[in-house]
Amino acid sequence: MTAEVRRDLFKNFWDRYSDKPDTNSMMLNHTANDLEASDRADILSSLPLLTNKDVVDIGAGIGRFTTVLAETARWVLSTDFIESFIGKSQERNAHIGNISYQIGDAVNLRMEDNRSPPSLTFIVFDSLSIS
Fold first, then answer.
1. What is the layout of strands, in order, in the sheet containing 54-58?
2. Does 38 fall in a domain?
3. To 10 degrees, the CA torsion angle through 83, 47, 40, 81?
4. Under 8 Å between Cβ of 36 and 23
5. What sign for the dihedral angle of Cα 98, 19, 27, 82?
6. Residue 129 included in any domain
7. Pairwise CA distance, residues 62 & 21, whole Å
8. Does residue 129 contact residue 99 with C-beta atoms inside 8 Å?
């Protein structure tokens, strides 16, 4: 299977949830609201210190990590290949000024030339396949 076909399969999978940009869809669990806070805390506790760093939240979904990352990072790029997920993240984080948004996958990520090397947050590795 080529990398492009694999990315298309993952895109098609998440497209099925594009009309439900919520925590349950992001975590693929109908009781996700009960688990979300502890799950997020567990994952964030394993990250290095990101204070005043540029951070790329790849596969950001509705921004459940983007919000917390933006509290300490200098700048956050929140990216996902599902437009409605990015739209929900923009809505949730409208009050935060250091977040930029991009629709697309990690392979086609576009960064401004003047940005310092970002710290990357890969929450989901399985959808990234490079040949």
1. 99-103, 75-80, 54-58, 119-122
2. yes
3. 10
4. yes
5. negative
6. no
7. 6
8. no
Q: From CA 56, how far away is CA 120, in angstroms rounded?
A: 5
pLDDT by residue for the chain (131 residues), tens only, comes to: 777 777 888 889 999 999 999 999 988 899 998 988 898 888 888 888 889 998 899 889 999 999 999 999 999 999 999 999 999 999 999 999 999 999 988 777 777 766 655 555 555 544 444 44
Residue 18: phi, psi to the nearest 5?
-65, -25
Residue 117, domain extent: 3-122
Is 127 contained in some domain?
no
What six digits make up the tokens of 86? 């990015």
The CA R_g of the chain, rounded to the nearest whole Å, is: 14
pTM higher than 0.85, yes or no? no
Closest CA to 79 of 96, 58, 93, 97: 58
What CATH number did the domain enclosing 55 receive? 3.40.50.150
- Contacts with 49 (C-beta within 8 Å, 6 or more apart), sequence order: none
Residue 109 lies in a domain: yes
